Structures are given as structure tokens and as C-alpha cells.
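Hi support team,

I'm filing this because I wasn't sure whether my run with magnesium ion finished correctly. The job status page said complete, but I'd like someone to confirm that the output block is well-formed before I use it downstream. Pasting the exact inputs I used:
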Amino acid sequence: ALFDQSMHERIAEKLKLEGDLRRAIGEGQLSLVFQPLYDLEPYRLSGFEALARWEHPERGHIRPDVFINLAEESGHIEALTGWVIDQAVGQLAAWRAAGLCAGPLDMHVNISGRDLGNAGLVPLVRETLLRHDLPASQLTLEITETTLMGKLSVALDALHALRKVGVKFSIDDFGTGYSSLAYLTTLPIDSLKIDRSFVMGMEKSAQNVEIVRAVVNLGRSLGKKIVAEGIETVEQLAAVKAMGVHVGQGYLLSRPIRADQVPALLGQSVAEPA
Ligand code: C2E
Ligand code: MG
Ligand code: MG
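And here is everything the job wrote out:
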């Protein structure tokens, strides 16, 4: 039998979850947490990455990679991305308006492959920035390397149009895909975010250290800002800083936090973890 009962159950369950997700977007089950990003030299808060959370009424916490995938497959990603961009931009604008930000902070939002092919993305981003009165340069869209390189033909127009709006781009999980080096020089990419598997693997293998060093050198010589994600130890922090990484993110620096925890963070002076 090619189609057995367990497959039937899996499909039924997936369809149910898709329906739940569609409702969740409208019913306030989704929320955002914000993970701080820090300039490493000198050490200072430089922005946040907005990360989506879904608290399912019966199943509890559902991992973002699971529901993002589901949203992509079921056609709900447009609504989800629109919601995330609106909330993240609105939140930063609110912190600014309350006088909590000493200087400009970047808000990073993850977008998925489908979003880049969606004709509505550019007007949506432009309209959201205008409505919240946030300068476009304070919004960075993160796209994973695999997605970007796999969707280049459909992504190019959106990338250039959004660049005209003034939005920045970062390549997420860099090092896990296959970037065309030629494209790295011509695409409107501002920063490369080194995948956390390399950062976390630095202690285990000298090869990972050399990969990180090579990415930093390549990126720097192309004029890109280099971000390291997944920094969990003071040794990793010291290593990426010594290599010339500009910006760090990871549990050592800060876990993702709720919006109501951000004002306290903005009000306090930062000390580098040591
Ligand atoms: P990502 O964009 O690479 O986000 C970084 C992930 O690494 C987050 O997981 C974050 O909580 C986690 N992380 C940060 N620092 C550390 C660390 O030091 N150690 C470890 N082990 N993990 C760390 P999260 O929130 O579970 O998100 C997973 C992925 O789901 C994200 O990876 C992103 O690709 C996707 N995602 C999350 N929110 C959204 C969204 O609103 N839209 C889209 N399209 N994708 C999203
Ligand atoms: Mg990201
Ligand atoms: Mg990443």
C-alpha cells in the first residue's frame, strides 16, 4: 500500500494546522520577540532581529521553522510577512517616538522566498514605513542564502525596487548555501550573517575557524557588514571580534526578549560580556 492510514492522518493533521495558522494570524496568537544585535567595536546595541512566535491554544509553542514552512506551502506567508513587518516597524517607531533610542537602531525582519516573488511586497514595505514614519534605512530584510540564490531571477526586481525605497538587505545563514561570488558584488546586499553552525563549530574544528575567517575577509573586502549569529561563549565572541566581525548576535549577548522588556534594555548602559 502506497497510501496508508498514518499518511492519511499526517495529511489531515497538516490541513488542520494550516487552518489554525490562518486564524492565528488574525486572532492574536502570533507574537514577536526581539533579539538584540550588538556592534562589537565599540560595544553598543545596534538593533534587533524580530522573530515570530506562535502559541497554539491546544498544542502550545510551535517552532517558527515549522509554521513558516506551513505558511509558505499553504499560501499564508504573504499575510504572515505583512503582519511581522507591520509589528516590527511599528514597534521600533514606537520606541523612537517615546525617546527611548539614543541613536538609530536597525530592525531586522526575516522574509521568505515566496515574499520576493510577490508583487505586493514592495508597496507593502513602502506603505508600512510611511504609516509608522520610520526611515527606510532602519529596516533590514534578511533572506537566507539558499533562498536568495535559488530565487534570484524572481528576486532581482524586488531587491532593486526595495533598495530604491532605502531598505537594507542581509544574507542570513551565510555559508550554508552556494552564493555566486559575482552576485555578491552586484546585488544590493549590505550585510552577511555568518551561519551559527560555523560560529558554534569554531571550538571543535580548525576548519570552521578558517571558514569564518575567509567569509569575514571576503565580505569585508566587498564592503559588506559582517554579522555573526549564534554566539554563546566568551571565547566565540573574542574570536569573531578578533577576526573583524562587525556585529554579533547570540545567547551570550542576549536571548530574544519581549517588546515590554526592551525599554529597560534601551535605558541601561551596555557592558560587553566577559
Ligand atoms: P534565523 O533568522 O537564522 O534566526 C536566528 C535563530 O537562531 C532564532 O531561532 C534565534 O532564536 C536563534 N538563536 C539566536 N541566538 C542563538 C544562540 O546563541 N544559540 C542558538 N542555538 N540559537 C540562537 P528561531 O526564533 O527559532 O527562528 C528560527 C528561524 O525561523 C529563523 O532563523 C528564521 O529563518 C525563521 N523565522 C523566524 N521568524 C520569522 C519570520 O517572522 N518570518 C520568516 N520568514 N522567518 C522567520
Ligand atoms: Mg534571521
Ligand atoms: Mg540565521
